[in-house]
Amino acid sequence: MLQTNAPDRSTLVSLSAAGLYRKGRWLVRGVDFSISRGEIVTLIGPNGSGKSTTAKMAIGVTRPDEGQVNRIAGLKVGYVPQKLSIDWTMPLTVDRLMTLTAPLRGREIDAALEATGIRHLARAEVQHLSGGEFQRALLARAIARKPDLLVLDEPVQGVDFAGEIALYDLIKTIRNSTGCGILLISHDLHVVMAETDTVICLNGHVCCRGTPEAVSRSPEYQRLFGARAGQTLAIYNHHHDHTHLADGRVLHADGSVTDHCHPDDGHHHEDGLPVGRAGPMRIVHTHGPDCGCGADHSSPATTGGDNAAENRDA
Ligand SMILES: Nc1ncnc2c1ncn2[C@@H]1O[C@H](COP(=O)(O)OP(=O)(O)OP(=O)(O)O)[C@@H](O)[C@H]1O
């Protein structure tokens, strides 16, 4: 038999003119898109735009009132919902969380916790996990049964900015190692778009779609999120090659540490980014009189705030 290493890109789910009608109105209507194996599709849109509703139609939690949703036979879905009803007064360990709804073998639990980097937390109480650790535990639970399709509704909620980047890296690694399809839902525009193959921008209907670059340039997207939102993506397409340490020195990508950054250095790491969500991002760079980064500190674009100059590095 002919062997091929080409990735399997067969379609897992497709929605065609799908709509859901509840309480006298269409929550979403005319939704068309598909998810293939190995593909990361992201639904973005403002609060209430129908992202979760669309995801639930895609995986069969709800049936569309018009249009069609087709899934491959026997599709295995790993779903991390936006909200989880956990009784936080009851002690619950991470490994118990993994088996709450269905049994798993010990080695499957271990492998999933290992893959998400929290094997050392197997006996930890879920109540005591940080936001990022909790999201990893939910991810571990979703991947443990080796799904064909992973659906993650707001997977970075409660996670700080550096944690967001790490989680999206992890999600990409899971896709690369398992070849599953991934449907991400986010109302953030931050890292999620840059880490995605296909973006579907929703607002009760599909406003625009395509690669992150194409969506961030589209007038519909800019009307929904503001023209500056597109610049967010540019930031994440940059290579962040140095980090400002707490003591003011600079750690470079090659591991060297210098007192200053250099005029020809690339963009800064995310340290110090404001936590603001769903808006244009600014890279905050605290300039000193001789920080040596090469920016014009006297210009209005690089001064402002208390002692910190805010510099859009995009
Ligand atoms: N079963 C339901 N019956 C009536 N309305 C509903 C139902 N489920 C959701 N809605 C409404 O449909 C709209 C879309 O909800 P949905 O949860 O899909 O939005 P979303 O884009 O995921 O929002 P968010 O970013 O806030 O999570 C909202 O106005 C919501 O109140």
TrEMBL record:
One of its GO terms (molecular function) is ATP binding. Belongs to the ABC transporter superfamily. Residues 13-228 form the ABC transporter domain. InterPro entries: AAA+_ATPase, ABC_transporter-like_ATP-bd, ABC_transporter-like_CS, Metal_Ion_Import_ABC, P-loop_NTPase. It comes from the Bacteria. This is Zinc transport system ATP-binding protein. Residues 292-314 are annotated as: Disordered. It comes from Mycoplana azooxidifex. SMART domains: AAA (SM00382). Keywords: ATP-binding, Cell membrane, Hydrolase, Ion transport, Membrane, Nucleotide-binding, Translocase, Transport, Zinc, Zinc transport. One of its GO terms (biological process) is response to zinc ion. Its EC number is 3.6.3.-.
